[in-house]
């Protein structure tokens, strides 16, 4: 995501007048897209003019580094009652070093999260997270951040459909999370009467548990990727066409993770784009975040005992996580082109690009510091402590909400 630095401070400081000094999305896109190399830039702030010529200073908040932070987090396990036992690292004794770092984009600052301002931005709106347990991780983070301004009430807790919905009465804001690890229909494979870790994935059949909720939403945050490392059997048009991670099944074609992830992300975005009564819906795709298991994997003794963020030189820039991120961003660009700015189908698509920032934070997982009965006494090096760097995802989300306020002008 890019921001115009001069305009950022004005818009952040004047959150109660978010439509002041904003130009309509179509006009701005035409302006910014004329800049060489910036065909997909999304910066809906008014462009500063100098000497009657158009000048834009861009800052990509996905590129930066973690710097020392002296202040305390907005919330703690003592001030937020919504922290799950498996993310409550401070309760279970994790040393607090991981709390005192802040994401600093190259060349600009990411505004700090302000609960009151966020609730003002989403007044009268509905926002949902869709994905796996990391979507729930971000939901829990946002719930904790906002609860410092107002305590929400539970509206719906549906274990069957895996929907959790909260409401903030004073701002009439509804926040919800919906579990859908594949976006499409994924059914566990049963072997000899026992549910296995493999799945039948129906590429052409969307999971309607979440898409049925779309007409009621103003904002949607989708994410995923971690469940695609399992063995999967791929189905299309009612037929088994192949598999993923299935070397022993020689009679089936292994399509690979990249094909499968692209297929389901595309299906999800196309389902959103074809939604009736969804004009104005803004969809954010949060990019993939990797685990940091060292010395084996999750259930084989793997751990994550680092006490500081990794150095840039330590991270691999060519692993699967970057391939997944690339696919996610490409599919967002594809649906933008398909959707068309200014056309009758008024839906909008943005990216919360957190892959690099979180690749560095091997120090901020629960590890051994949680109620380990939840994961068969294994160390958790996939999810993120609360509070922790996952809160930065919601700082990016808040910045995007400020940006996308200009869409109301179209």
From TrEMBL:
Coiled coil found in the keyword field: no
Pfam assignment, any one: PC-Esterase
Domain of life: Eukaryota
Key words of the record: Golgi apparatus, Membrane, Signal-anchor, Transferase, Transmembrane, Transmembrane helix
Domain Trichome birefringence-like N-terminal: from-to ranges: 59-109
Keyword Magnesium belongs to the record: no
GO molecular function, one term: xylan O-acetyltransferase activity
Domain Trichome birefringence-like C-terminal: 110-398
Compartment(s) of residence: Golgi apparatus membrane
Membrane-topology descriptor: Single-pass type II membrane protein
InterPro entries on file: TBL, TBL_C, TBL_N
GO cellular component, one term: Golgi membrane
Family named by the database record: Belongs to the PC-esterase family. TBL subfamily.
PANTHER family assigned: OS06G0234600 PROTEIN (PTHR32285:SF253), PROTEIN TRICHOME BIREFRINGENCE-LIKE 9-RELATED (PTHR32285)
Name of protein: Protein trichome birefringence
Organism: Rhynchospora pubera
Taxonomy of the source species: Eukaryota, Viridiplantae, Streptophyta, Embryophyta, Tracheophyta
């Amino acid at each position: 995501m890019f921001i115009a630095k001069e305009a950022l401070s004005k818009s952040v400081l004047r959150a109660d007048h978010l439509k002041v000094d904003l130009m309509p999305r179509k006009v701005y896109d035409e302006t910014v897209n004329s800049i060489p190399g910036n065909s997909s830039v999304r910066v809906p702030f008014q462009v500063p003019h100098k000497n009657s010529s158009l000048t834009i200073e861009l800052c990509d908040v996905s590129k930066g580094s973690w710097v020392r932070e002296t202040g305390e987090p907005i919330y703690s396990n003592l001030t937020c009652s919504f922290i799950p036992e498996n993310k409550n690292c401070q309760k279970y004794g994790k040393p607090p070093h991981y709390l005192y770092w802040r994401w600093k984009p190259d060349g600009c600052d990411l505004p700090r999260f302000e609960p009151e301002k966020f609730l003002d931005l989403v007044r009268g709106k509905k926002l949902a997270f869709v994905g796996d347990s990391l979507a729930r991780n971000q939901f829990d983070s946002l719930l904790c951040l906002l609860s410092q301004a107002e305590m929400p009430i539970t509206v719906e807790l549906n274990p069957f459909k895996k929907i959790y919905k909260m409401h903030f009465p004073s701002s009439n804001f509804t926040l919800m999370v919906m579990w859908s690890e594949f976006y499409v229909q994924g059914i566990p494979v049963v072997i000899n009467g026992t549910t296995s870790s493999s799945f039948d994935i129906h590429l052409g059949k969307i999971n309607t548990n979440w898409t049925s909720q779309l007409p009621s939403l103003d904002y949607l945050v989708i994410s995923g990727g971690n469940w695609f490392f399992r063995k999967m059997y791929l189905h299309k048009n009612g037929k088994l066409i192949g598999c993923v991670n299935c070397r022993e099944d020689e009679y089936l074609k292994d399509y690979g993770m990249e094909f499968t992830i692209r297929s389901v992300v595309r299906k999800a975005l196309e389902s959103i784009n074809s939604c009736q009564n969804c004009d104005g819906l803004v969809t954010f795709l949060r990019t993939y975040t990797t685990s940091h298991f060292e010395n084996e994997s999750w259930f084989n003794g793997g751990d994550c005992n680092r006490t500081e963020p990794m150095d840039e030189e330590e991270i691999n820039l060519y692993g699967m996580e970057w391939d997944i991120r690339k696919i996610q961003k490409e599919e967002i660009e594809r649906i933008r082109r398909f959707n068309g700015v200014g056309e009758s189908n008024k839906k909008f698509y943005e990216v919360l690009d957190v892959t690099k920032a979180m690749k560095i934070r091997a120090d901020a997982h629960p590890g051994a510091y949680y109620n380990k009965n939840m994961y068969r006494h294994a160390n958790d090096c996939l999810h993120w402590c609360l509070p922790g760097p996952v809160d930065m995802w919601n700082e990016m989300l808040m910045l995007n909400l400020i940006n996308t306020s200009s869409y109301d002008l179209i």
